[in-house]
Amino acid sequence: MDAILLQILNGLDKGSAYALIALGLTLIFGTLGVVNFAHGALFMIGAFCAVVLQKILTLQKVVLDNENLTAWGTPSEIKTPYAEIWFGDFGAKLIDYSVPVSILLAIPVMLIVGFTMERGLIKHFYKRPHADQILVTFGLAIVLQEIVKAFFGANPIPQPAPEALRSSVDIGVMLGFAENAIIYPVWRLIYFVFAALIIGAVFAFLQFTTFGMVVRAGMADRETVGLLGINIDRRFTLMFGLAAAVTGVAGVMYTPILPPNYHMGMDFLVLCFVVVVVGGMGSLPGAVAAGFLLGILESFASMNEIKSILPGIDQIIIYLVAVVILLTRPRGLLGRKGVMEE
């Protein structure tokens, strides 16, 4: 039982990232009808927002200490971050908590990136075939990742979690199991809670605000909403920015789990498109449910006991589930009737 619970926790960890990215993908497809293959790049850009802020906060002032010499007889260097010089202990805390603080940078950056991407490129492909949309957004994703590679290099850049949150917690004891039966990193639990809050906030925004109600109406019948005198295109542009922000903050908080690298967006993109298809194209609850479901299945498939029977199953389990779902229910788990069934 403890092994099962551990795999469920691992699945919720992966599923949180899948669900957040798939949620943004579904918002864009459901509102604009665009298949956005550059969405994984937004996850990557969000992650590198954390890298940029961490580099800014750790810029150092170098002072030569003539009293202490190195082995070569030269004065040793005393390096002190400017943040600590200017803000003292608060500056040290900022450096320590640079990852969560990066959310404050990522939100405006991702909104700007999202608006620019939609207004500058994607709006010209609304009425074009999905194949054209895939080609142009995939090309944009490659351009963005090559820009990031040119500025930050090809190697992953580790981003430490705050020191107080680098420990692990004995969940097994809380649930009545033996001591040390289920030890789990605190930051991974925080990521799951963070994802749940973001998902809940997006659904609450769409469900209980006037703006969200209009957007949902536009997703169901865009032409009728337009005939009512509502500028639905402007609201859909704002939704594109919101989807970019959701994906960006997901990338920020994932950096202590997976060090940012220039191809991380592509790594998540294909999996999250599978999640969207399994959940149902345009279905927000379906995207979230499928994200967590496939994350848990992938976690169980990675167990040594399973891989000893079915070698490599952890690499293909998500795609096998997608094939089964699409053969038996083409519209996905929670997709609207008629979608992908014609």
Using brief descriptors, characterize the structure shown:
mainly alpha, 342 residues, two-stranded antiparallel sheet, two-stranded antiparallel ribbon, ABC transporter involved in vitamin B12 uptake, BtuC, 68% helix, 7% strand, 15 helices
Polypeptide structure, described:
It is a single chain. The model has no long low-confidence stretch (mean pLDDT 86). Helices cover 68% and strands 7% of the residues. The chain has 15 helices and 4 strands. It has a two-stranded antiparallel ribbon. A two-stranded antiparallel sheet has the order 3-4. The chain has one domain (2-64, 87-328): ABC transporter involved in vitamin B12 uptake, BtuC. The protein is mostly helical and 342 residues long.
Which helices and strands, and how do they pair?
Layout: H1 2-32, H2 39-57, E1 60-69, E2 75-81, H3 82-87, H4 89-96, H5 98-120, H6 130-152, E3 168-170, H7 171-174, E4 183-185, H8 186-208, H9 210-220, H10 222-227, H11 232-254, H12 264-279, H13 284-301, H14 304-309, H15 313-328
Antiparallel strand pairs: 1-2, 3-4
Helix pairs in contact: 1-8, 1-11, 1-12, 1-13, 2-5, 2-6, 2-11, 2-12, 5-11, 8-9, 8-11, 9-11, 12-13, 12-15, 13-15
